[in-house]
Amino acid sequence: IMNTEKFNIASDSKNDIEAWLSNLSHNPFELNGITYASIESFWQSLKFEKWSELWLNCINLFWPESKKYWKKSENKSIFSYEWNDYIVWSQEHQNLMKIALKAQLNQNLDKLKLLLSTGNIDLIHKPQKEDWSYYADSKTIPWEVFSRFLMELREEFREFSNIENNTKTWV
Asked: Are the C-beta atoms of 38 and 27 separated by less than 8 Å?
């Protein structure tokens, strides 16, 4: 780990930990019987009708391709996922991100180890442009929410590993 006060989780970071903890990183995971290529592909897929061509393409995307895919979606205020309706931007909508992150970490031990290796360092999620200015914040999953979810999950997994005497099974 680098000697730093915080990690800025961003896919284009020169720091491997920051890049691989990103929502765009290629760390496939399964959730409710569907395999997603990245957290971002899961998040963007919520904007499309399940099993549609756009949805099928979306679940396989990672890195920049997944981030740009929202442009193909309709602007909706309500969407359905697993037989439930969600209001866009609601706490329930945002909690789906945490559920997906937890599933991904459970299924990608290398990513989980990277997260745990950050210790108690603050994690932020403020992607920067080449000129060092920041991209606009997400309207559906604000930077601080994504960062908070990562830090909460880091603590949950750390507590679990302490309970299980550092077992390598994270189920």
From this structure: yes
The encoded tokens of residue 46 equal 């919520």
**Cα–Cα dist 53/1, whole Å:** 41
Sign of CA dihedral 50, 44, 158, 112: positive
Q: For 63-94, what is each residue's pLDDT tens digit?
A: 888 878 878 888 889 999 999 999 998 999 99
Contacts (Cβ under 8 Å, ≥6 apart) of 74: 47
Q: CB–CB of 48/58 below 8 Å? A: yes
For 103, the 3-state DSSP assignment is helix
Which CA distances in Å does 42 have to 23, 47, 105, 167? 10, 10, 14, 29
Report the length, in residues, of the chain: 171
Q: pTM for the full model? A: 0.84
Determine if residue 120 is left, alpha or beta; phi over 0 gives left, psi from -120 to 50 gives alpha, anything else beta: alpha
